[in-house]
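Inputs:
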Amino acid sequence: MSSQRRRKGSGRVTLADIAAKVGVSKITVSRAIRTPDKVSEALRLKIQRCIDENGYIPNRAAGALASSQSKTVALLVPSFSNAVFTEVVKGVDEVMLSEGYQVLIGHSGYSTLEEERLIETFLQFAVDGVILSGSQHTERARRMLGQANVPVVEMMELADNPLGICVGFDQVEAGRSVTEYLIEKGHKRIGFAGARMDHRAQQRLRGWREAMWKAGLSDEYLITSQAASSYDMGANLLAEFVQRWPDLDAIFFCNDDLAAGAIFECQRRNIRVPHELSVIGFNNLPIAASTSPSLTTVATPRYEVGRRSAQELLKLLQGEEAEELRIDLGFEVKGRESA
Amino acid sequence: MSSQRRRKGSGRVTLADIAAKVGVSKITVSRAIRTPDKVSEALRLKIQRCIDENGYIPNRAAGALASSQSKTVALLVPSFSNAVFTEVVKGVDEVMLSEGYQVLIGHSGYSTLEEERLIETFLQFAVDGVILSGSQHTERARRMLGQANVPVVEMMELADNPLGICVGFDQVEAGRSVTEYLIEKGHKRIGFAGARMDHRAQQRLRGWREAMWKAGLSDEYLITSQAASSYDMGANLLAEFVQRWPDLDAIFFCNDDLAAGAIFECQRRNIRVPHELSVIGFNNLPIAASTSPSLTTVATPRYEVGRRSAQELLKLLQGEEAEELRIDLGFEVKGRESA
DNA sequence: CTGAAAGCGCTAACAT
DNA sequence: ATGTTAGCGCTTTCAG
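Outputs:
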């Protein structure tokens, strides 16, 4: 007859159920789970058995509410189809998992507006920290992150004005370096081919341009597209380059997908790489080592960026002050057959 | 003063804060957000302004707790680096987002034990539904899902005994089909090359074997590895095949990554594909259309599998009964240059 | 080592 | 159209 304002509840087994069955208080069950050494062994075992038998699964929403700590962090990447980020995700995930944090992953599709929407969503989940890709965010996203007062790490590039701290490498410098590598090899007419020109690709373009200027070479051999990067797009870009500038020495493709597509197109057109034309890519994705000829490219520390970002976030989460605001993990020009 | 059992709280702006500032009750603010038409326009506007000004972000943990629905679903994939699943994720995400659900993504690294761990974690988040890859799960995972009483969709293969419903295509049939395609082309010595032999790859292998038997052909040309799939592995497998069986007609690689790697190796070895050797892959990833020669493969409806899985889960979430338990989305042999 | 009471921030249920 | 009250399932705080 206990009727009167009955609520549904989830119908699942709760901490209170376990407590009642074992004949202890809720807090003791809670302790047995979270701080086992604060509960006598006998009791702990008894509680554990009851938990197993009843398939009790703690409700984290309740826990988060009570402790105002969700033990989750948000990780925002531009895209899953971009293999660059799969390793970043792996690095973040491994570190966070080992510290008992759950990583909530979102992909913005290279849209800062979608990123803003995701930040809002994840903030609703009361994430304890946020890892973002890049340094380009909407005003509102910045404001929300500020108000929420959560630690933020930006990765993959070194922001001038980091929201919190940033972990990555100098994309401009990388673009410059690899262009200088080509120049040192004696190339003069060096093109830049880009697609999906996100902020990082634009920085590489800037590096190319600076290197060309510095060497007194022309930066006219430039074709970029805002469309998505793909093997096909790489093939198309190559076709356009050889048609417009038949006497080109080399082309710097802003990523390995494009460069690999260009290599395939060269095979079809019987353009001998690197004898007639040098091709370089960016990122050192697995495909770079496998094509024929293999692809000269820039090796980027993606996995390490993920790990380090997570480690730094963890420090902030534990209340430590950041020592370095901009953590540079470097890059390396990887000479192979194509250039 | 008012001291006595004070708790920390999150320090963030809450619904109560907004209610107090506007001078209404909490539930009215709640309604203004969730069911705007149940609040007078004037009040709604006033509340909305206050929310914006104060940067209020609803706490979903609290909402989930109160309503015992989280408006989130879990999506478990074996791997992010496998491009097959990036499209599945995209399909699921698009559909779920459009219905106001947030998708929590986890990757099991092809381990059913890791999958079990993820299921437990996501169940702690009180997800409303779960989408799994494949039909292989641990006993404990099955039990947890059963007890949690959430709708489950398994995707990518057609389980004999689905946990809930399943959405995919017949992997055995696909393996058989593409082998028959080769047989019809007049090939007799057809090899099967596999890596990371997950359950789906094993089913394709079975299809190959069945087709070979049916045609009275030998199934001796078989090499598989439990190691991860990669371009390199494809190249290695090709090398091993041509060494062991120099007179082979064709090789069915269990996925496009392997097949592409094999194509690259053929280029290096000057093995003319398809004249000397036919090569086929599986999945029709973007690379299949781009290599030279382009890759004959099996087009699989990955994106559609994602969308449909989400749609079916949505139906279950709304309490509808499942009409079909096994939803077959088919596949298509995609003839190109390599076979 | 164990427990009682209070409350995290929100929504369901029952008013008016 | 708006409000009151209770309570979701857990952890914190204070006590013993």
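Remarks. Chain B has a mean pLDDT of 94. Chain B touches chain A through 56 residues (CB under 8 Å).
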